[in-house]
Design a protein that fits this description.
This protein has helices at residues 3-19, 47-56, 104-116, 151-154, 165-171, 223-231, 246-250, 281-284, 286-295, 298-306, 335-344, 360-374, 387-396, 412-420, 434-445, 449-466; strands spanning 27-32, 61-63, 69-71, 74-79, 85-90, 129-136, 139-144, 185-191, 195-200, 214-219, 237-238, 255-270, 311-312, 350-357, 378-385, 401-406, 469-482, 485-486, 502-503. With 505 residues, the chain is α+β, with helices and mostly antiparallel strands. The chain has 3 domains: 3-57 and 174-261 and 477-503, 3-Layer(aba) Sandwich (D-Maltodextrin-Binding Protein, domain 2), CATH 3.40.190.10; 61-168, Dipeptide-binding Protein, Domain 1 (Dipeptide-binding Protein, domain 1), CATH 3.90.76; 264-474, Dipeptide-binding Protein, Domain 3 (Dipeptide-binding Protein, domain 3, Roll), CATH 3.10.105. The strands form 4 sheets. Strands 1, 8, 9, 10, 11, 12, 13, 14, 15, 16 and 17 form an 11-stranded mixed sheet that branches. Helix 9 packs antiparallel against helix 11 (335-344).
């Protein structure tokens, strides 16, 4: 089936629910690239899942465009003098989708689940929490083993989402089948590889800012299909517009483009210790990985595949961040250095398998890397697949290297640790360097901004030398939408907050 036929089918199928007349009059239709994994804040690990979570599950506090936090389910929070306790004051009058009032005990039950349940992937984010105390009906205190600066950022995301204890206590690891949360929209249905449907929750505490009755997320991995559906009026908005299509959207009077610098990044993650597939020169020897990095030109990748809209980078933090290590600036391409490093490792040519998501952008980036690396002595074999199947392969250790796309967090720890900290569930390559772990621990415990930036310099110096991952660029978020839509505010985490959005009829 060619791309034109695929696009026509997508348009026709997308129109069916609207023609049936069963949906409410105001529907927001969003095209997204990635298929989510489980719709459970305790288990979720994909960027695609965070779009539905943002609509379904309010957090204790939320990220703002200026990277500060604003109250959401909590109205205030404060650290103790020694930074070993965080006291949280909860909002009055919040009701979950099943009618459960949000109390301190409800919040405690959620945080305990994230901290200790067998199915939880949030344990690392709450690693420093040793006790969760109910002070009164609207006050919770988190007791820490030591200061842990990243905690605020963690609680502005999945680890701070409040779900129904009655449901997760009944379903356990199957909570994703009937997710019940506390956000502006409640779950209706999910059709795998196609759509997630949510409807407005009338009991929402901030209902005055919700102006649509239903939200439909459509899964469309192909950026061209997403754009064609938007142009045809079958979508109201899409995320992750292909950079090559930005000019098209700008030139269309019926569409609007909104951009914002992102906290996210793309990197090549390398299997260094996870099973037999790590037993390769690429997995074993940092010199081989350094040769691979020297073979690629991030600036060319940005210009050719990304229309020059992204930020080439060799670190996880933006060059403008106080946590960027300025002693390690972006290196240029050096094929001679790459070949010399391979000879030093006793090699002339090296075979490398690179896993990549089956999206036009990622495939193009991978093909550029493949071509560049070949000139330096690397024979790169590309293996493309859907995001969820790629993650399953990495979880099994069935990969050599993979292009990761991380959506980014406001705290540097969560951007670094997610893929390479020893206790991270997404450390698929099982990288484990005691010196790195010690440096990361010191940085996490430091609350003074200047000393904390210095601590992350050491962290960055270690991982850029070991190269368990090779950062490529920081993302610029590109949102395209109908001119009928208003009220959208872009935030550097790349998520779509539906509060405030209106769709003219």
């Amino acid at each position: 089936m060619n791309r034109t036929t695929t696009t026509i089918l997508a348009l026709s199928f997308l129109a069916l629910p609207l023609a049936a007349g069963a949906q409410p009059s105001t529907v927001l239709r969003i095209g997204q690239q990635e298929e989510p994994d489980q719709l459970d804040p305790a288990r979720g690990g994909t960027f695609g899942g965070r779009f539905a979570f943002t609509a379904m599950c309010d957090k204790l506090w939320d990220l703002q465009p200026d990277l500060t936090f604003r109250p959401q389910l909590a109205t205030a929070w404060s650290w103790s003098a020694d930074n070993r306790a965080l006291t949280i004051t909860l909002r009055e009058g919040v009701v979950l989708h099943d009618g459960t009032p949000m109390t301190a005990e409800v919040v405690r039950a959620n945080l305990e689940r994230y901290r200790s349940a067998a199915e939880s992937n949030r344990k690392g984010e709450l690693r420093s929490v040793t006790a969760i105390e109910v002070v009164d009906a609207k006050t919770v205190r988190l007791v820490l083993s030591q200061p842990f600066a990243p905690l605020l950022a963690a609680l502005s995301d999945r680890a701070g989402m409040i779900a129904s204890p009655a449901v997760f206590q009944r379903l356990g690891a199957d909570f994703y089948k009937e997710p019940v949360c506390s956000g502006p929209f409640k779950y209706v249905e999910r059709v795998a590889q196609d759509r997630i449907v949510l409807e407005k929750f009338p009991g929402y505490w901030d209902a005055g800012r919700v102006h649509v009755d239903r939200v439909v997320f459509r899964m469309m991995p192909d950026s061209t299909v997403r754009l064609v559906n938007l142009q045809a009026g079958q979508l109201d908005m899409l995320q992750d517009l292909a950079p090559s299509d930005a000019a098209t959207v700008r030139g269309d009077g019926k569409l609007r483009l909104v951009t914002t610098p992102g906290l996210g990044y793309a990197a090549i993650g390398i299997n260094t210790r996870h099973g037999p597939r790590a037993d390769t020169p690429f997995g074993r020897d940092p010199r081989v990985r350094a040769a691979f990095e020297a073979a690629i030109d991030r600036a060319v990748i940005n210009q050719v595949a990304l229309e020059g809209l992204f930020v080439p980078n060799n670190q996880t933090e933006l060059p403008s961040s106080p946590f960027f290590n300025r002693k390690l600036p972006l290196p240029g391409r050096d094929v001679a250095k790459a070949r010399a490093l391979l000879r030093e490792a006793g090699l002339e040519r090296v075979e490398v398998e690179l896993q990549v998501a089956k999206t036009p952008r990622d495939v193009q980036v991978a093909e550029i890397i493949q071509s560049m690396a070949a000139e330096a002595g690397f024979d790169v074999k590309l293996r493309s697949g859907e995001s969820v199947s790629n993650i399953q392969a990495m979880t099994r250790g069935d990969y050599q290297s993979s292009i990761h796309n991380w959506s980014g967090r406001a705290d540097p720890d969560l951007n670094i640790s997610i893929y390479i900290a020893a206790d991270s569930f997404q450390n698929w390559g099982k990288y484990n360097n005691p010196a790195f772990e010690a440096a990361l621990g010191r940085a996490r415990a430091e609350t003074d901004p200047v000393r904390r930036a210095a601590a992350y310099e050491e962290v960055t110096a270690i991982y850029t030398a070991d190269k368990p991952m090779i950062p490529l660029y920081n993302t610029t978020w590109l949102f395209a939408m109908s001119s009928r839509m208003s009220g959208f505010v872009a935030v550097p985490d790349g998520l779509i907050r539906i509060q405030g959005i209106r769709v003219a009829q």
